[in-house]
């Protein structure tokens, strides 16, 4: 679970920066592509563990001793110094709740007439897209 969380961290930070840059608004594109990027990045982080799911222990051991194992978001480095932490499942649920809260807030703002941040006019002097 920690590999998935750590793998999703970089896309989460990029999404958070875009969210802050847009003045606390999330476009539909960000609400869709952000979680997809987090999921794909988290999946990339656990690629070295996939042989274990397929019950192929020799391939699993080979991958974990390969010098390029850390290409998967430092997977083997994390495994080497890993300690079970009871808060990983809680952090995983909180990450999902955070994403749902942002989406819920944007839907509510749009329904109240706040408009979609992608189609909203930007104030004079502001540059870039939300």
Describe it for me?
The protein has 130 residues and is mainly α. The protein has one domain (2-111). The chain is 62% helix and 0% strand. The model has no long low-confidence stretch (mean pLDDT 84).
Summarize the structure.
With 130 residues, this protein is mostly helical. The chain has 6 helices and no strands. It has one domain.
Helix content: 55-70%
Query: Uncertain segments of ≥5 residues (pLDDT<50)?
Result: none
Radius of gyration: 19 Å
What structural class should be given to the helix and strand makeup?
A: mainly alpha
Number of strands: 0
Q: What sort of overall outline do the alpha carbons produce when their principal axes are compared?
A: elongated
Major sheet description? none
Question: What would the keywords be for this entry?
Answer:
single chain, 6 helices, mainly alpha, 130 residues
